[in-house]
Amino acid sequence: MTEWLKYFFGNFFNKKYADQSANRSYGNCLLAFLLAMLLLLVTFSSATTIAFPSHYNKSGEFHAYYHGLFDGDNALSLSLNGGVMSASIGDKAADTVQINKIGRAS
Asked: Assuming Cys at both sites, which of 12, 52, 83, 87 could form a disulfide with 102, CB separation 3.0 to 4.6 Å?
Protein backbone atom coordinates (compact mmCIF):
# COMPACT_ATOMS: atom_id res chain seq x y z
CA MET A 1 0.00 0.00 0.00
CA THR A 2 2.78 2.43 0.82
CA GLU A 3 4.36 1.63 -2.52
CA TRP A 4 1.11 2.50 -4.27
CA LEU A 5 0.82 5.80 -2.37
CA LYS A 6 4.39 6.63 -3.33
CA TYR A 7 3.45 5.84 -6.93
CA PHE A 8 0.31 8.00 -6.78
CA PHE A 9 1.93 11.05 -5.21
CA GLY A 10 5.37 10.75 -6.80
CA ASN A 11 4.88 9.48 -10.36
CA PHE A 12 4.78 12.95 -11.86
CA PHE A 13 8.12 13.90 -10.32
CA ASN A 14 9.99 10.60 -10.13
CA LYS A 15 11.18 8.78 -13.27
CA LYS A 16 11.15 5.39 -11.52
CA TYR A 17 7.41 5.64 -10.81
CA ALA A 18 6.61 7.25 -14.14
CA ASP A 19 8.20 4.30 -15.98
CA GLN A 20 5.94 1.91 -14.03
CA SER A 21 2.79 3.54 -15.40
CA ALA A 22 2.76 1.42 -18.56
CA ASN A 23 2.79 -1.79 -16.52
CA ARG A 24 -0.03 -0.80 -14.15
CA SER A 25 -3.63 -1.92 -14.71
CA TYR A 26 -6.83 0.07 -15.24
CA GLY A 27 -7.75 -0.63 -11.61
CA ASN A 28 -4.88 1.60 -10.54
CA CYS A 29 -6.14 4.29 -12.88
CA LEU A 30 -9.63 4.08 -11.38
CA LEU A 31 -8.30 4.04 -7.83
CA ALA A 32 -6.07 7.03 -8.58
CA PHE A 33 -9.03 8.93 -10.03
CA LEU A 34 -11.20 8.18 -6.99
CA LEU A 35 -8.42 9.19 -4.62
CA ALA A 36 -7.93 12.44 -6.54
CA MET A 37 -11.68 13.20 -6.34
CA LEU A 38 -11.65 12.45 -2.60
CA LEU A 39 -8.68 14.76 -2.07
CA LEU A 40 -10.43 17.54 -4.03
CA LEU A 41 -13.66 17.10 -2.06
CA VAL A 42 -11.87 17.17 1.29
CA THR A 43 -9.76 20.16 0.27
CA PHE A 44 -12.67 22.28 -0.98
CA SER A 45 -15.00 21.41 1.89
CA SER A 46 -12.26 22.06 4.46
CA ALA A 47 -11.35 25.38 2.88
CA THR A 48 -14.98 26.48 2.84
CA THR A 49 -15.60 25.35 6.42
CA ILE A 50 -12.49 27.05 7.75
CA ALA A 51 -13.03 30.30 5.84
CA PHE A 52 -16.77 30.81 6.52
CA PRO A 53 -16.55 32.20 10.08
CA SER A 54 -13.91 34.69 9.02
CA HIS A 55 -15.99 35.93 6.07
CA TYR A 56 -19.21 35.99 8.10
CA ASN A 57 -17.75 37.94 11.03
CA LYS A 58 -16.23 40.58 8.74
CA SER A 59 -19.44 41.25 6.81
CA GLY A 60 -21.35 43.53 9.13
CA GLU A 61 -23.99 44.43 6.55
CA PHE A 62 -24.91 40.78 5.91
CA HIS A 63 -24.77 40.05 9.63
CA ALA A 64 -27.23 42.89 10.34
CA TYR A 65 -29.53 41.82 7.48
CA TYR A 66 -29.56 38.18 8.56
CA HIS A 67 -30.39 38.98 12.18
CA GLY A 68 -32.87 41.69 11.15
CA LEU A 69 -34.73 39.20 9.01
CA PHE A 70 -36.07 37.42 12.09
CA ASP A 71 -35.82 40.16 14.76
CA GLY A 72 -36.75 43.81 14.87
CA ASP A 73 -39.32 46.05 13.19
CA ASN A 74 -39.15 44.49 9.74
CA ALA A 75 -39.02 40.85 10.83
CA LEU A 76 -40.40 38.23 8.48
CA SER A 77 -43.31 36.30 9.95
CA LEU A 78 -44.54 33.03 8.41
CA SER A 79 -47.81 31.33 9.35
CA LEU A 80 -49.84 28.34 8.23
CA ASN A 81 -53.62 28.58 8.74
CA GLY A 82 -56.14 26.22 7.18
CA GLY A 83 -53.65 24.85 4.67
CA VAL A 84 -52.66 28.33 3.44
CA MET A 85 -49.12 29.63 3.97
CA SER A 86 -48.83 33.37 4.46
CA ALA A 87 -45.99 35.79 5.09
CA SER A 88 -45.99 39.26 6.57
CA ILE A 89 -43.33 41.84 7.34
CA GLY A 90 -43.41 43.29 10.84
CA ASP A 91 -46.76 43.78 12.56
CA LYS A 92 -48.53 45.08 9.45
CA ALA A 93 -51.51 42.86 8.67
CA ALA A 94 -52.05 44.76 5.40
CA ASP A 95 -48.74 43.43 4.06
CA THR A 96 -49.72 39.77 4.52
CA VAL A 97 -49.21 37.76 1.34
CA GLN A 98 -50.54 34.28 0.57
CA ILE A 99 -47.59 32.14 -0.53
CA ASN A 100 -49.09 28.84 -1.57
CA LYS A 101 -52.02 26.57 -0.96
CA ILE A 102 -51.19 23.03 0.08
CA GLY A 103 -52.12 20.78 -2.83
CA ARG A 104 -55.68 19.56 -2.44
CA ALA A 105 -57.95 18.56 -5.27
CA SER A 106 -60.86 20.99 -5.38
From this structure: 83
Judging by beta carbons within 10 Å of its beta carbon (0-12, 13-18, 19+), is residue 86 exposed, middle or buried? middle
Report which residue type is found at 73. D
Q: At what angle do helices 2-10 and 26-58 cross, to 10 degrees?
A: 70
Question: Closest Cα partner for 102 from 86, 87, 88, 85?
Answer: 85
Query: Any idea what DSSP says for residue 95?
Result: G
What pTM, to 2 d.p., does this model score? 0.43
- DSSP 8-state assignment for residue 89: E
Output Rg (C-alpha) for the chain, integer angstroms: 28
Tens of pLDDT along 6-31?
Answer: 777 766 667 777 677 777 777 777 88
CB-CB contact of 75 with 89 (8 Å): yes
